[in-house]
Write a structure and sequence with these properties.
Layout lengths: L23 H25 L10 E2 L6 H4 L4 E2 L7 H9 L14 H6 L2 H9 L4 H29 L14 H9 L3 H17 L5 H11 L4 H13 L3 H8 L3 H13 L7 H4 L11 H7 L9 H28 L6 H13 L12 H4 L4 H9 L5 H21 L2 H12 L2
Parallel strand pairs: 1-2
Length: about 425
């Protein structure tokens, strides 16, 4: 393949595709998706959380909170809560100047993932009483973007814009709706990156990559993939330029080294565990020995084990599907991206990692999105297979929402 080094976008020109004749439909379906999400959240907050939107952050009833938040925060029945509770705290103190680190379970890891909390802080104009609502809106904005960009990709491939709604079945999206986790932002930015690359819209690629790195550390893989693709095409100037997209995140990491207490910064916390793979067969071991649920009746334990195995099997299916797609995926930048996220799974091999899809499916969000994007050929078959694996993982996620859903259903029907 020939390329002209005089133009940064030239190495991608052969994949430029028209975006369709009805771009307004993409906005429409994105709006529909967000309205569905906000409608569900409003209903579950009213019915299950006594109209207290802090319930969405899953704050554990044993979690430590600053005194100023203790009275207004709805506590979850789970003593530990879930990850969204920590990003909620960071959104109130993004520069960690008010002792927030003392309330985080992993201060360096949590505070590295700054983009969503920082955006919530900015939308709230720094006002603490507005941060929770702003955070919910920021998550909704990324859901809107994910649907819009996936819809744009569908239109570019000659498919219907409504397929953008498939972004809502990406496990990280479904989980974020219920727990306010940040991975949905990386999923949306992956869809944006794929759209920019496939349609030759290079102007904002650097911004997308820089933002992905600030969502969470695995966003760096998008930068590495873009740099490698440019280097293999001998467009070294472009490779060097794209490499600088990691600089904002690296600068932020440097700031955290000085802002956090020494006890929170060590070699173990600085280098993510996924950087050094430890080959194991954790996913197979977990499928053979699913987690125990002592609080469930035997019948529900059997059902939970079944859905656990289905979700793990679907995840393995997603990995296999990704491997099969590698040779056909175009352009080269998306091929490199898919390859790197598949390789990253080598680091996710401990049995404990695969305990719940609420945990293991979120780091795999870019993989699920790339599968929904397709490989450039047989787009219908590609989309069906990717949709099936997402739904099968979602089945286990949805079992966690069964009580909420039943309460909402009774409220809607007046029962």
């Amino acid at each position: 393949m020939e390329c002209d080094d005089t133009s940064p976008a030239s190495s991608e020109q052969e994949k430029v595709v028209p975006v369709g004749r009805r771009p307004g439909r993409r906005w429409l379906w994105a709006a529909v998706g967000v309205l569905l999400v906000l409608g569900w959240q409003a209903a579950t907050v009213h019915v299950n959380y006594d109209d207290n939107w802090t319930g969405l952050f899953r704050v554990g009833h044993a979690a430590r909170l600053p005194d100023r938040l203790a009275q207004s925060t709805l506590r979850n029945t789970n003593p530990a809560g879930y990850d969204g509770q920590f990003y909620r705290l960071i959104a109130r103190d993004p520069f960690l100047r008010s002792g927030t680190a003392a309330y985080l379970d992993a201060p360096l890891l949590r505070s590295q993932r700054i983009l969503v909390p920082a955006l919530a802080w900015m939308v709230a104009l720094g006002r603490e009483d507005l941060v929770d609502g702003a955070y919910v809106l920021v998550v909704a904005a990324f859901l809107f973007g994910g649907v819009f960009w996936l819809s744009s990709l569908a239109v570019a491939d000659g498919r219907q814009a409504v397929l953008g709604l498939l972004f809502l079945i990406v496990p990280a999206s479904l989980i974020a709706i219920d727990t306010m986790t940040v991975d949905v932002a990386l999923a949306a930015l992956t869809a944006c990156f794929a759209w920019q690359v496939k349609t030759g819209r290079e102007r904002w690629v650097w911004v997308t990559l820089a933002a992905a790195c600030l969502v969470r550390e695995t966003g760096l893989l998008l930068v590495v993939a873009a740099v490698l693709a440019a280097a293999f095409q001998r467009n070294f100037r472009r490779a060097a330029f794209l490499a600088t997209a990691a600089v904002p995140a690296l600068c932020w990491y440097g700031y955290l080294m000085s802002a956090l207490p020494p006890s929170a910064v060590s070699a173990r916390t600085i280098v993510p565990r996924w950087v050094v793979p430890r080959p194991q067969l954790g996913i197979l071991m977990r499928a053979i020995d699913p987690p125990r649920y002592p609080n469930l009746s035997p019948a529900f334990q059997t059902l939970a084990h079944l859905f656990d195995r289905v979700a793990l099997g679907a995840t393995m299916g997603a990995i296999i599907l990704g491997i099969l797609r590698l040779r056909r995926t175009r352009p080269a930048t998306l091929q490199a991206t898919l390859a790197l996220y598949l390789l990253s799974i080598l680091a996710m091999t401990g049995k404990g990692f695969w305990t719940t899809p609420y945990g293991y499916s979120r780091p795999l969000a870019p993989l699920f999105v790339l599968l929904l994007v397709g490989d450039g050929s047989s787009v219908a078959c590609c989309g069906i297979a990717a949709t099936v694996v997402c739904i099968l993982v979602d089945l286990r996620v949805l079992t966690e929402l069964r009580i909420q859903a039943l309460h909402v259903l009774r409220w809607v029907t007046g029962g």
